[in-house]
Amino acid sequence: ALWADSWPPFERDVRPQLNDPSIMYPHTPPLAQQVPSWLLWRLSVALPLLLLLPLAALRPRGVPATRLLNELWLGLVTSIATAFLFTCVVKVHVGRLRPDFLSRCMPVDGSCTGDAAAVTEGRKSFPSGHSTLVWAGLGLVSIAYAARLADLSTPRLGSLFKVVVAAAPAMVALGVALSRVADYWHHWQDVLVGSLIGCVAAYGAWRLRFPSPVAAVPSGRSRLTPHVCAEDLELLAKEHRSPPSERVEV
């Protein structure tokens, strides 16, 4: 985060937008935001790590708990790191002004007279970093629960219950994303694109390690079986089906 903050953004000429109502909103101090930075990292990283733990108890047959958690946590780290890096690069190259930029800038004769750090931060509106990170983290959790619940056909778990459980993390992410518009730190386009980046990162990280959560799987297989474990299970099944004379001793 410190590295991203120290990267100077592209500085747009403020003069053509001095009368732009879209950047005239009041400034909300960082600690007065609905989701300050310290809470964002807890919701994007710590909470997903904890929410992925129960899946170890619900793991498919033949998949070790430690292997499953390793794949889930590595997928989470991959998703967050990819989304964070991409967002930082786009932010500093676009340099879009935040909705509260003029309140930060306090322009006089077309030049900003406000706090330099606040003005610099005001040039990093697109895309929304909060939206990107929270969807990259909690979005992957929703995919993981959707994949596992899709395998379960027990009558005790109705379709509505599965949808609610799988969608709950995504609803938290949506609330965080919408708060950025309410706090006047981002335009709606920033939030939309940031959320899409986080979702794409989460799905891409998932598919690197697991089957598609919506695709059909062979009988006896699970959508929560990592690719590496699936290969091991196929080798064991092939060895079990082979005649004793054809088995290879290891």
What would you note in describing this structure?
The chain is mostly helical. It has ten helices and two strands, in the order H-H-H-H-H-E-E-H-H-H-H-H. A two-stranded antiparallel ribbon has the order 1-2. Helix 7 (129-151) packs across helix 9 (188-207). The longest helix is centred in the N-terminal third of the chain and has 30 residues, at 65-94.
What is this structure's SSE topology?
Layout: H1 2-5, H2 37-52, H3 54-57, H4 65-94, H5 101-105, E1 107-108, E2 111-112, H6 116-121, H7 129-151, H8 159-182, H9 188-207, H10 227-241
Q: Report how far the terminal alpha carbons are from each other.
A: 48 Å
Largest sheet: 2 strands, antiparallel
**Overall 3D form:** elongated
Strands ordered across the widest β-sheet: 1-2
Mean pLDDT: 86
- Content-based structural category: mainly alpha
Q: Measured on Cα atoms, how large is the radius of gyration?
A: 23 Å
Spans of at least 5 consecutive residues whose pLDDT stays below 50 are 242-250
Number of strands: 2
Strand proportion = under 5%
> What's the SSE pattern?
HHHHHEEHHHHH
Helix content: 55-70%
Task: Report the total helices.
Answer: 10
Question: Notable features of this structure?
Answer:
single chain; 250 residues; mainly alpha; two-stranded antiparallel ribbon
